[in-house]
TrEMBL record:
One GO biological process term: carbohydrate derivative metabolic process
Domain of life: Bacteria
NCBIfam families: G6PI_arch
Family to which this protein belongs: Belongs to the PGI/PMI family.
Keyword Lyase: no
Protein name in UniProt: Bifunctional phosphoglucose/phosphomannose isomerase
Alphabetic keyword roster: Isomerase
Isomerase is among the record's keywords: yes
Domain SIS: 29-168
Pfam families: bact-PGI_C, SIS
Annotated InterPro entries: Glu6P/Mann6P_isomerase_C, SIS_dom, SIS_dom_sf, SIS_PGI/PMI_1
GO molecular function list: carbohydrate derivative binding; glucose-6-phosphate isomerase activity; mannose-6-phosphate isomerase activity
Length: 335
C-alpha cells in the first residue's frame, strides 16, 4: 500500500500519457459532442470520487455544472445535452452498470473509465469513448487514472481551460513534496491514537477533500470518520460543540484550510479552533500546502492517504484489506 501511495505522481504521469493516446485515437467521438449544458459523473466509492475531486480542481472556472451520482437511479434532468462519464475501476460495480444500461436505453453517447469487467465489454460493444486503466490497483488508489481522463476530456471540449501543463507542473511538485508529506503524516499519526477523526474544511469547494480523507480512514484505517465544511457547519453542527468535552478522549478534529477560502471563513475556523481548545478536544489546523489549487488539492489527497496508511499500521491493521465490502458483494450476488 505504501508504494501505491508514494508513487501517486508517477500514476498521474502515466495516466496523462494513456489519456492523451486514447483521446487521439477517438477524436471522432469528441467531434460529435457539442451543446453541453451539464456534466454527470456516475460511479461509486473509490471510482466515483474522481468526479468529486474534479469539482474541487475546477470549481473556479468550470463552465457547466457537474453532478456526481452514487446510486442506482439517475435524475430526471439527464438528457442529450448532458455529458456522461461512467466510472467503475473493476468494471463490475452493479450500481454503475445499472446506470450505464439506463443511459444506453436512451441511446446516449457515454465516456467510460474502467480497467475491465462487464463495463469494458459493454463500452467496446457500443463504441463508447473508453479509457482502459492499468489493472491490479485497489480502486481507491487508482485515483490518478480515474481523474485525468475527466480533466483532459473537459479540456478538449473547451468546458475548462487546457490543464495539461498544470497537471505536468503538479506532478513535479508532488515528487518534490512527497517525502515531506509522508514525514508530516507520521508525526500527526502519533497525536491521533485511537480517536475518531472529524474533518472540517473551510470552503464548499474543498468538501471532496474532506470526503476523500473520511473514505481513506474508513477503508485503510478501518475507523469511523465524519466530515463537514464551512460556513455550513456553523449553521448546525457547531451547536453540538459545547458537548464535545464528553468526547475529548474520543475525537480528533482536522481543520483543513483552502488558500482561496473567503476571508470570513478564516475567522470562522479560528473561532472553531478556540472553541475546541477550550473544551480540551485535540485538533490540528492543516494550513494550505500551496497557493496553487492543483498543487494543493493533489497534495492534500496524498497527505491524507499517508495519514490513513500510517494510522492503520499503528492500529496493527492491513490497509489493503476490505473484507466487509467483499463479503457484502458475495451476499448481494445471491439475490
Amino acid at each position: 500500500m505504501f508504494d501505491l501511495i508514494y508513487h501517486f505522481p508517477e500514476q498521474l504521469e502515466e495516466s496523462l500519457a494513456l489519456t492523451n493516446q486514447a483521446l487521439k485515437e477517438r477524436k471522432d467521438f469528441l467531434d460529435k459532442i457539442n451543446d453541453i449544458e451539464k456534466i454527470v459523473v456516475v460511479g461509486m466509492g473509490g471510482s466515483g470520487i474522481a468526479g468529486d475531486i474534479v469539482f474541487s480542481l475546477t470549481y473556479s472556472f468550470l463552465k457547466s455544472p457537474i453532478l456526481v451520482i452514487k446510486d442506482y437511479y439517475l435524475p430526471f434532468f439527464c438528457n442529450k445535452k448532458t455529458l456522461y462519464f461512467v466510472i467503475s475501476y473493476s468494471g463490475e460495480t452493479e450500481e454503475t452498470i445499472f446506470n450505464y444500461q439506463q443511459l444506453k436505453r436512451n441511446k446516449l453517447p457515454l465516456i467510460v473509465i474502467t480497467a475491465g469487467g462487464k463495463l469494458k465489454v459493454l463500452a467496446e460493444k457500443n463504441q463508447d469513448l473508453l479509457f482502459i486503466l492499468p489493472q491490479n490497483y485497489p480502486p481507491r488508489q487508482a485515483l490518478a487514472y480515474l481523474t485525468i481522463p475527466i480533466l483532459l476530456t473537459l479540456s478538449r471540449l473547451a468546458i475548462i481551460p487546457n490543464c495539461q501543463q498544470e497537471i505536468e507542473k503538479t506532478i513535479l511538485y508532488l515528487k518534490r513534496m512527497r517525502k515531506r508529506l509522508n514525514e508530516r503524516a507520521k508525526r500527526i499519526t502519533k497525536l491521533i491514537e485511537n480517536k475518531i477523526p472529524y474533518i472540517i474544511v473551510d470552503s464548499y469547494s474543498y468538501l471532496p477533500i474532506a470526503y476523500r480523507w473520511k473514505n481513506q480512514f474508513n477503508e485503510n484505517t478501518k475507523i469511523l470518520a465524519f466530515y463537514s465544511y464551512l460556513p455550513e457547519q456553523n449553521h448546525n453542527e457547531i451547536n453540538a460543540l459545547p458537548f464535545l468535552e464528553l468526547l475529548k478522549d474520543t475525537l480528533f478534529v482536522f481543520l483543513l484550510k483552502n488558500p482561496f477560502s473567503h476571508k470570513r471563513n478564516l475567522i470562522r475556523i479560528n473561532f472553531l479552533s478556540k472553541l475546541l481548545k477550550e473544551n480540551k478536544v485535540t485538533h490540528k489546523i492543516i494550513p494550505p500546502i500551496s497557493k496553487n489549487n492543483f498543487f494543493n488539492v493533489f497534495s492534500l489527497i496524498l497527505f491524507g492517504d499517508f495519514i490513513s496508511y500510517h494510522w492503520a499500521l499503528k492500529r496493527n491493521i492491513d490497509p489493503l484489506k476490505i473484507e466487509l465490502i467483499e463479503n457484502l458483494k458475495k451476499f448481494l450476488a445471491k439475490f
